[in-house]
Every structure is written in structure tokens, then in C-alpha cells.
Write a structure and sequence with these properties.
InterPro entries: Doc (IPR006440), Fido (IPR003812), Fido-like_dom_sf (IPR036597), Type_II_TA_Toxin (IPR053737). This is Type II toxin-antitoxin system death-on-curing family toxin. The protein is mainly alpha-helical and about 130 residues long. Helix content is about 60%, strand content about 5%. The chain has a single domain, classed as Up-down Bundle (Four Helix Bundle (Hemerythrin (Met), subunit A)). α3 packs across α6. The longest helix is centred in the middle third of the chain and has 19 residues.
């Protein structure tokens, strides 16, 4: 299975639809490189684990690196959901759960490993 990663332009477009502006577009080149390194050139990929890792990177890094003037949590959540959708996966959690985790990430109350486990338990292949 080929993993599909949203482009920088798609992520910026999410933020623009939220009525916000890019503050640090260069951060996205780093983000995409970081994501690609999680799955490129690996022979035996455990797909759901890789999907969860990439989703966690999108969600956590956009929130914590704060590349937009405003809307970082919303953009991060939508970018992560777009990534899942492009790869035929969904996150089975209500909106309130997504908001809660976004706030936990923003306040440094959840670390990457715990976020990864949380995502892994809730990511499902779309039927």
C-alpha cells in the first residue's frame, strides 16, 4: 500500500479556509521530510502503526511548531484527518475527543508516545 501524504499546499489551504494566515511555511518542508522518513525505504511496514505515527506527527508538530498566525489546533486536526482520509482510514472519536486531545497537545499535557497509543486504538480502516 502506498501512503499518501497531504501536500504543503493542502495544509495551507485548510488554514486559509479557517480564515487564518501562514506564519512559517518553511516549517512544512521539515514536517513532510520528517513524515516521509517514517515510511520510506522500509520493506516490512506495519501499515496501521505507520498511519498512526504519521497522523501523530501531523497533529502534534503543527500544534507545537505553531506555523500559522492563528488556527494551529484546528488546522492540525484537519490536516491529520485529511491524511487519514487520503489513506482510507478514519479516527473513531467524537469531536469533543479531538478538541480535548488538541488542547492536551497545545498544553504539553500529552507526549508523542501517549498520543500515538491513543491514535492507534482509534484509527480504523474506512469501509
Amino acid at each position: 500500500m502506498k501512503i499518501i501524504v497531504p501536500s504543503v499546499e493542502e495544509i495551507v489551504e485548510i488554514n486559509k479556509r479557517l480564515g487564518c494566515n501562514v506564519m512559517n511555511k518553511g516549517m512544512f518542508e521539515f514536517l513532510i521530510t520528517k513524515i516521509e522518513s517514517t515510511y520510506e525505504n522500509k520493506e516490512h511496514i506495519e501499515i496501521i502503526g505507520t498511519i498512526a505515527k504519521i497522523a501523530a506527527i501531523f497533529w502534534m508538530d503543527i500544534i507545537q511548531f505553531h506555523p500559522f498566525v492563528d488556527g494551529n489546533k484546528r488546522t492540525a486536526t484537519e490536516a491529520m484527518l485529511l491524511f487519514l482520509k487520503k489513506n482510507n482510514y478514519i479516527l473513531e472519536t467524537p469531536l469533543v475527543g479531538k478538541v480535548y486531545i488538541s488542547l492536551k497537545i497545545a498544553n504539553n499535557d500529552i507526549k508523542y508516545d501517549k498520543l500515538l497509543k491513543w491514535l492507534y486504538q482509534r484509527i480504523r480502516e474506512k469501509k
